[in-house]
Amino acid sequence: MLLERIYDEDLAQASYLIGCQAKGEAVVVDGRRDIAVYQALAAKSGMKIVAVTETHIHADYLSGTRELAAATGAKIYVSGEGGPDWQYGFDGQRLFDGDTITLGNISIQALHTPGHTPEHLSFLVTDGAFSDHPGYLLSGDFVFSGDLGRPDLLDEAAGGVDTRFGGAKDLFASLRDKFLTLPDYVQVHPAHGAGSACGKALGAIPSSTVGYERLYAWWAPYLAANDEQGFVDELLDGQPDAHAYFGRMKRENREGPAVMGERVPLEELATADVVAGLAENTVTFVDTRSNAEVHEGTVTGSLNIPAGKSVASFGAWVVNPETDKNPLVLLAPDQDSAQDMWDHLVRVGIDNVAGYLTGLQGLPVSTPKLIAPEDLAGFDAAMVLDVRNRTEHAAGHIPGSHRLSGGRVMWNLDQLPAEGTIVSYCQSGVRNSVAASALRRAGYDVVELDGSYAAWAAQQQAQESVPAS
User: Fold this and answer.
1) DSSP character for 375?
2) DSSP 3-state assignment of 136?
3) pTM of the entire structure?
4) pLDDT of residue 343
């Protein structure tokens, strides 16, 4: 048996390819939309992808299930659990608790493990060439290394009302009745790692075992004592902010993400064409440099989505494909870099990319406004906006600031002043630059706090350490 983990550090998301080497067949679980990685892995292993499935209706990225099926002819399997409100809107064989997908000697049994979502499945894998007993659990967003999938996302991002309490109780029951009945030696392979917003304390270790989690996970004492209420209270306390784009992911994943098919490689665009598009507001320029470089000058009206490990996350903060219809023009040093950024963007449904430019020469450039920490006290701001998470704000913030996390800013403009200047900050300036660029593009007068909260806190500390004369 082949079991390969494919990990996306951008979204802290893990998908899996399980293959029967004897039969030359494979299944992909929780795949993403840029599917070349699965096709290459299957080809390298001499396998054909014959099945695709997923653990649940995802909130943080668009599923590649339909994309892979269209490209390979693989059969689609999706959950049939969860009741009428949680049924998929596209064709595929429905899996219910106990149903099995078979590849040669390998059996993949669906376990209904609700809590994170009502329809959630985990997959118990048995390699029949070695044993009649299961050895692996693909736990999706049910059990992570050291944590559990949060049950409050349906309230936070999908329009639910107080579903978190029922979800938390479902998680307790799923742990008691499904997870803890498995042998200790069963390996646990979750769908997310550290950095994901799908839990509050995910470990960086890529896998665990039932026995290890039974002994050492934070929730283990509550299960051992059958303390459901204590479990619910602890689980729901301190969950991170859910990004607003999660609601769009839920809708699209349930109905079925658009199938892109084979994408034509991005081309370098003519500067004159981009200048004309900017003047007519028919394209949106994306500056992919660091915030420090952007502060030295950037294309007027551009978005700052810095290249690196968070392109998908930051992109979904500031681009809503349902309302933002302009194609994007990416700043990239070469075609390979532009293509890689596009791969990240399609994972969150940002498909409309026209091409790339390698520099800013000939484009309309302006310099974002900054304010030094020492000048903030005397500045007449309509609002000081903190775009960090709630835990960061609680640990320390600029007095009088209004907190609205970066992933929610553009969906909550009614919380911002209609007139006047907004001074915005995050911890170091990266997230702030992303959010501020989108606000400027939307017509707000935004001044970024230079160095953000870290610089302000250092300046405050320096002032306090100066001895009185």
Assistant:
1) G
2) strand
3) 0.94
4) 97
